[in-house]
Design brief:
alpha/beta, Rossmann fold, six-stranded mixed sheet, 29% strand, globular
C-alpha cells in the first residue's frame, strides 16, 4: 500500500542544511501495526509527516496504492480518503462534547450519512466510553481524551492510521491502556498503523519494527 524509495530530507537553517533522513527505503502492506522507534529529535515526526502526505521530502519518491505521489499537487483529498491521524496531544475541540468531536471528521468529509450517530454510539459502547459521551474534553481524563482521539481517527474509515508519540503525554497506567486500545482497534478493523514512538512497549503489539538512528531506518 505504501512504498518509500530513497527518501531523504533536510531543513535549511540560514545558509546551512541539516539532513535528518537519508535514503529511507521501506514498504508497508495493507494492514499491520508498524512501529518506528527512536529518541526525540532523530526525525521520526518528519518521516511520519512525509508518509502521511503532510510534508514533502527533499529527495526520493513515495508510492500510495502503486501511484507515485506528486507533492506539487493538492493532497488534501488523498489525506481525507486514506488517512487518520493521531498526535501527542489529543487536539479535541474544547467547545464541543466528546460526541460532537467525533462528528467532526464526517462533517469535514461532507459525510452526513444517516448512520454516523449510530457508528459513534457503537464505538463508544464497544470501547466502554459511553459515560463520557456528553462531557467536554476539559472534564475527562488525558487517557480518555486520547482514546477518543483514536476513535476519531477511524471515523472516516481510513486505510492508514499515522500515530506520532501517542503515549508521550500520558502516565504509565494510561499509556498501557492506550497500548491495549491500539491492539483492540487493529484486531477489530485490520488497518495499517504506522506509529512513531520512543515507548518500547509498542514492540510487544507490533508486526514490524524499525529504529530510526543516524538518519537511517534499521529493521529490528
Amino acid at each position: 500500500m505504501i512504498e518509500l524509495r530513497n527518501i531523504s530530507h533536510e531543513y535549511k537553517n540560514n545558509n546551512n542544511s541539516i539532513k535528518v533522513l537519508s535514503n529511507i527505503n521501506i514498504s508497508y502492506l495493507d494492514s499491520g501495526i508498524n512501529v518506528i522507534i527512536g529518541n526525540s529529535g532523530v526525525g521520526k515526526t518528519t518521516l511520519l509527516n512525509i508518509i502521511g502526505l503532510i510534508e514533502c521530502p527533499t529527495a526520493g519518491i513515495l508510492k500510495l496504492n502503486n501511484d507515485i505521489i506528486d507533492y506539487n499537487k493538492e493532497l488534501s483529498s488523498l489525506r481525507l480518503q486514506n488517512y487518520g491521524y493521531i498526535f501527542q496531544n489529543h487536539y479535541l475541540f474544547p467547545e464541543f462534547t466528546v460526541f460532537e468531536n467525533l462528528c467532526i471528521p464526517g462533517l469535514i468529509k461532507n459525510n452526513l450519512q444517516k448512520n454516523i450517530k449510530d457508528r459513534i454510539n457503537l464505538y463508544l459502547k464497544k470501547f466502554q466510553l459511553e459515560s463520557i459521551s456528553n462531557k467536554y474534553p476539559d472534564n475527562i481524563s488525558q487517557g480518555e481524551a486520547q482514546r477518543i482521539a483514536i476513535i476519531r481517527s477511524i471515523m472516516n474509515n481510513p486505510k492508514i492510521i499515522i500515530a506520532d508519540e501517542p503515549t508521550s503525554n500520558l502516565d504509565e497506567y494510561n499509556a498501557q491502556i492506550i497500548l491495549e486500545f491500539f491492539k483492540e482497534i487493529y484486531e477489530e478493523f485490520n488497518l495499517l498503523f504506522i506509529i512513531a514512538t520512543h515507548d518500547k512497549r509498542f514492540l510487544e503489539i507490533s508486526n514490524k519494527n524499525y529504529k530510526l538512528s543516524n538518519k537511517k531506518l534499521i529493521k529490528i
